[in-house]
Design goal:
The protein has about 300 residues and is an alpha/beta fold. The protein has eleven helices and 14 strands.
């Protein structure tokens, strides 16, 4: 009986061994390439036993987020002998879905994301920047708008429904003052500022930490119409499945890195120029009592 092995008709039973040897040789040839690709995606120690997935809330375009965070994770990975892979979601709602599902091992999230993630997955905040986070509403400097009441009935841009200070706090403030607005969600803080400059909307919600990192030319054309009270800033947090020793080593490494010359610049771009140790009960539990749940939108696939 004629049998087909490796696409060749033969009447011998010896050829399968040849095919097997060839297949094994091909696999052996591919392994170095696969290992190289795996190493290329590793930020930190490529010899680490496993990679930890890190997600970052996409406040900025993906290319900027990667360029800001990759050097930080590379340095922290080398210092702690860990390997990190950086995951950047396309939108903030996509980020929230992954976070609430417990997908990332570590995550940089907004303060109310921390509340949501603690309730759902018990994510533990490790560090946050020492400078308080404030929500802001910006308008064009030449707009003639001088008070919040001027925004009544107007369309305003926000990064996403659940952006904490940029959207939840600012929308709640406007509602409490009886000011009705039409929200437009434009995905990132960068898009908010540019939507205002281009007069697509009359005003936009963002935060102090992102405005000060925009080009001076852009800042000079905007005016802060409103600024909220200060809150503990975005935390860098860990899922409880990450061993406590690894969590603590990452916390210490982030704080130590910010004290170096190279670290100061890199951590500033990551919006944590002065990282300090944080605690959920002390720093984020109070957010549960802000009564902003009515403005929270549960992400759906």
């Amino acid at each position: 009986m004629t049998m087909i092995f490796c696409g060749v008709k033969r009447r011998t039973l010896m050829l399968p061994r040849v095919c097997l040897v060839a297949l094994l040789g091909l696999c052996a040839a591919l392994l170095p390439a696969l290992s190289h690709a795996q190493a290329a995606n590793c930020l930190g120690d490529v010899s680490a036993s496993k990679p930890y997935v890190v997600s970052v809330v996409p406040q900025l375009p993906a290319s900027e987020t990667y360029s800001h965070w990759a050097p930080v994770l590379e340095a922290i990975g080398l210092a702690t002998k860990q390997c990190f892979t950086l995951n950047i979601s396309k939108t903030i709602p996509d980020f929230e879905l992954e976070l609430l599902a417990g997908t990332p091992d570590f995550s940089y999230m907004n303060p109310y994301h921390q509340v949501m993630a603690y309730r759902r997955q018990a994510y533990r905040p490790l560090v946050a920047d020492a400078t308080p986070l404030t929500g802001i509403l910006v308008v064009r400097r030449d707009s003639g708008i001088s008070k919040l009441e001027d925004l009544n009935g107007k369309q305003l841009a926000f990064p996403s429904p659940n952006a904490f200070a940029a959207s939840l706090i600012t929308r709640a403030t406007l509602s409490q003052r009886g000011i009705d607005i039409k929200p437009l969600y434009v995905k990132t803080h960068s898009n908010v500022y540019r939507s205002v400059l281009q007069a697509d909307v009359v005003a936009g919600g963002a935060v102090n930490n992102t405005l000060v990192r925009e080009p001076e030319g852009l800042q000079s054309q905007l005016k802060v119409l409103f600024e909220s009270s200060g809150y503990r800033a975005h935390p860098f947090s860990a899922h409880p499945r990450v061993p406590a020793a690894v969590q603590e080593s990452v916390r210490k490494a982030l704080i130590a890195y910010a004290s170096t010359d190279a670290g100061k610049a890199a951590m500033n771009k990551a919006q944590m120029p002065q990282p300090v140790a944080v605690d959920y009960a002390r720093d984020y539990l109070p957010l549960e009592y802000l009564k902003i749940e009515a403005f929270v939108e549960v992400p759906k696939r």
